[in-house]
Amino acid sequence: EGTRLLYRISQQLRDLKDVVMLTQQVVDILENLLAYPYTAILLIDQVSGNLEPFAVSNQGKGNEYVEIDKKYISSKGVQLGQGITGWVAQTGQIVRTGDVKKHEHYIEIREDIQSELCLPLIVDNQVIGVFNTESTQPDAYDESDQSFLETIVAQIALAIHNTLLAEKIKDSEEKYRTLVEHASDGIFVSDPQGYYVEVNTSGSMLVGYTREELV
């Protein structure tokens, strides 16, 4: 069963392009098939230093509850080094505890939680966030849970990193095209053979040819 679940999640991570949808579906799978009721993927906001919820369990209350819970988690303002999730994000160490109230880094966000398993999302030796799952039952997570999630979390981290990187590149390219297109000067870009590959509106007006004629 574990192998089939791992394969199913791996397929989701490979096939989906929308990173928010991707992570939310992984969380939903873990919630439905492994009964992880309070699961969240949180990413580090590089500006504020806060851990911001990226995907959370709907806890059987429908998709509308996801946004409500995200706002609730954000309102707590968990920072690097604060609480179990913040400590994991800061140190890159895994925490598995069957009694959260006895853990030295515990801060209460949900009063009925007893067990917690938190793993860092690491890419190129840098922590980008955490995968956190909690339970109202004591000693809810064992070594097999941790081992299974370590494999899943490594794939989640890489998928999030690659998708966010692609989005940044796309955003940079769009900003570049906007700047070039609206520049008052004529801009001509050529390849090593001297053929034009890009010309802005000012450039085409300057020489009296359309962009299609020039490129």
Task: Give the arrangement of secondary structure elements.
Layout: H1 2-15, H2 19-34, E1 38-44, E2 51-56, H3 63-75, H4 83-91, E3 95-97, E4 115-123, E5 126-135, H5 143-181, E6 188-190, E7 196-199, H6 201-207, H7 211-214
Antiparallel strand pairs: 1-2, 1-5, 3-4, 4-5, 6-7
Helix pairs in contact: 1-2, 1-5
Q: Give me the number of helical elements.
A: 7
Could you tell me how far the N terminus lies from the C terminus, measured between alpha carbons in angstroms?
56 Å
pLDDT < 50 stretches: none
Rg, Cα atoms, Å: 23 Å
Question: What summary fits the major beta sheet?
Answer: 5 strands, antiparallel
Summarize the amount of helix as a percent range: 40-55%
Strand order of the largest sheet: 2-1-5-4-3
Sketch the topology as an H/E string, one letter per element. HHEEHHEEEHEEHH
Overall mean confidence score, pLDDT: 84
